[in-house]
Write the structure tokens for this entry.
Amino acid sequence: MLVGDLPTPALVVDAVALEHNLATMATALPAARLRPHVKAHKCTELARRQLARGHHGFCCATPRELIGLARAGLTDDLLLANESVDPQRLRAMADLDARVTLAVDSEETVHAAARAGLREVLVDVDVGLPRCGCPPDEAGRIADAARAAGLEVRGVMGYEGHVVGLADRAQRIEQTEASMAMLLAAHEDVGGDVVSGGGTGTFDINTWATEIQAGSYALMDTAYAELGLPFRRAVHVVATVVSVSGNRAIADCGLKALGMDHGNPAIDGAAVWFCSDEHITFSRDGTPEGPVNVGDRVLVWPAHVDPTVAYHERMHLSTGASPDAEVIDTWPIDLRSW
Amino acid sequence: MLVGDLPTPALVVDAVALEHNLATMATALPAARLRPHVKAHKCTELARRQLARGHHGFCCATPRELIGLARAGLTDDLLLANESVDPQRLRAMADLDARVTLAVDSEETVHAAARAGLREVLVDVDVGLPRCGCPPDEAGRIADAARAAGLEVRGVMGYEGHVVGLADRAQRIEQTEASMAMLLAAHEDVGGDVVSGGGTGTFDINTWATEIQAGSYALMDTAYAELGLPFRRAVHVVATVVSVSGNRAIADCGLKALGMDHGNPAIDGAAVWFCSDEHITFSRDGTPEGPVNVGDRVLVWPAHVDPTVAYHERMHLSTGASPDAEVIDTWPIDLRSW
């Protein structure tokens, strides 16, 4: 089957670009130097490809991601890089036949983990992104509380999420160093072997963390594509033009097929006007192939990969980024929801 | 079970507000004067409540919505208010034991409908929103082409989507009248009984259309809530606070639980800082109940209902908008995807 024969909108992954991205990352950060973040693809089959490239530990944002990977046999070293005080979900993770580590950043999250029977934690430290994580100077106290509750403290985690998307590489370097100085100071107080941090935008900058939590590198998006990273855009939504009028065309890829927090997606050679629930309106002229017609397929490149993938039931693997490429596999996006 | 006992993030609908909205609309636009748009909720059970209020015709944006309603027995009058040239999906709709009407706006969409065995169409007319729809002066030609292809032309459709969200009611009135003048001119050339248009923001303004395609009125969102309509905010995401630090708190409701194209959601009494994949960061102080703590539940009000609902597997019905309300029912959001 060709990509152009898929019912649309269809989430398609250029397998050539994906393999390039997986290989490039595995060379740069081999084995346990990378802890792939599955939140960016929510796909067990893709995680298997990352495992095949030598990465045995995974990073998850939700219990469902972690439990799904464990049940699929990817049990070596699963980190929920997120706080939870949900007794049932914590217990479900504790009951897995897998090595499970949880992020904690407060007495409440420590005690919830211990009560549920979880055994290992990382202390999550605020390194500048105003999200989860304790202040660096409280990390030692949280670690003590965890050990007092019977938990093994493997080390620290701190995500420089406010840095990974900075356009200027010099700024990314400077601010990563500043963030990691905070994390290493916390690590002094916490102990353990693990210093977990980083993302796709800092994968080759963050040399302070012992492991990098990158996820977007596999599929990429237009926001990360602007940073000059060695990863190629792999994921796109294939849409069908259903209407043309004057200089505009409308295809069947809208707000329910795209994460929109980073703004509009892109269509190569065309200006995207706006998206609505089930449509994208774009300029009909100026595309590389000239004017488009009803029935044509167009490739829509999402601005933010994670919330885009989370809308789709499956991803199709193709031999290239084109309606004429062949569909060579279809993977369920099986780790969606919570 | 209480709302506060649900695993989070959970999509919750205040059943009191929902019933108010359904009743208010059924009084304003009884029976066939309203063709509820199911794209706003994608939930067969909610459509049944709209049917119980007397609305027998439904409006759909995707084949899956339409096919789902038909298979659930809501077969009286189903409109796909969208263009399609997908032969398999068109045939699947044609094969239903239901009255199915399709929007067409070009020769290509006319012929795709006829080839698939569909019997009835509306001519979709551009009334100012740069999306689907033919220019008004081409509507007669499209209708002729449809009749020549053996299709019954029921009338016209034109959505004033560029008007429904205007803050100023006088502007909404003026621009709705202008849009509907274009639609009525096209109707002159097309014929048929149906003039379909309108939305939640113009439900009581658009007196030119024979039927109004409102959908958001049932669940509402913060964007529509600003228009002073007689509908109450019903849908919200209940989240758990998983981290607090200084004056900020973080709850487990992020980009994968919220449509973000209308901007950040709201938390009553708090300032929302930003959302990331699985989190919302907001000011800890200034909430009606005072500072929040880890484990507290908060209600997150989405800015745009349609792409929010499309992320969730189910909606829980509650006796009110509060963690202390009771969960009285759970409905699958069964009409998601395409």
Notes: The radius of gyration of chain B is 21 Å. Chain B touches chain A through 61 residues (CB under 8 Å). Residues 169-190 of chain B form the longest helix (22 residues). Chain B has a mean pLDDT of 97.
